[in-house]
LysR family transcriptional regulator
Amino acid sequence: MECMSNFDGSALDGHLLKLLLAVLETGSITAAADRLGVTQSAVSHLLDKLRAITGDPLFVKRGRGIVPTARAEALAQPARDMLHQMQLFAQGAEFDPAAWQTELTIAANDFQRDLLLPALAMRLRTAAPGVTLRILPSGAPSAELLRSDACQLVISPRPPDGTDIVQKRLFEDQYRVFYDASVRSAPATEADYLAADHTTVAYEAHRGLDLDRQLLARGVRRRFAVRVPGFAALPAFVRGTALLTTAPSLLARTALAGLASAPVPVVCPAMPMYLIWHVRYQQDAAHRWLRGEVEGVVGPVLTLRCDANRK
């Protein structure tokens, strides 16, 4: 391996930075080649060039796979930052969504995913046909999800803490209790509600909805028979049973369509929904446009809810 001092730093380019991140994130030469749309031999050749520039093996064999060296892991964030700066350099002051060629990653759980992102995808296909929309589950999102650039936006009722994290409220929904009307009637009183068995969503072990933390603070405790990892799983456990599930009312349009619903007979907090991003994108023209497109789909969604409630 030639010493890195024999190489001009200008030999480093965006292709090499993308290669480093692809191998780091996939842990595989083959998978990195698939992601980048090149051959394995091309990845190996470029990786040899990057090793020569950095003066480090970057990845070493372990069993049948490879693992990154400490130097490779340390280069990950600088590589992301440089790619971001290259993108800003290429875009310049003017931004034309019709000419944008990129993959956008948004983290959202099934509620907000099914409610908002199909409409966003339609808008992108019209205004920015060169954009591919990739969607990840956000779970209970962490600040690192945005700091690592694993996604460019998060849509969640739970903004992570961090002085470098920016948030904007998109809308607020109210909870309703959903049930199978062929099996049982709606709980009429708080006593009926608390006497029933419930199913709920838990994205992390030992952490339920914010709703239950707030109810518990008032001494109200629900009895759970089933916990599932997302709202989309709730109907399978409610249909044909006497179980209740308490969920945002807008789910009547998506995952919980077909189940009966009624007001929750206990005082419930509202569920806010936020658009969340990292501060490094605050002034980015493309990102500002994308945020505007997400906000643009919210109004029609809420209008449809109001129309449905009037029927």
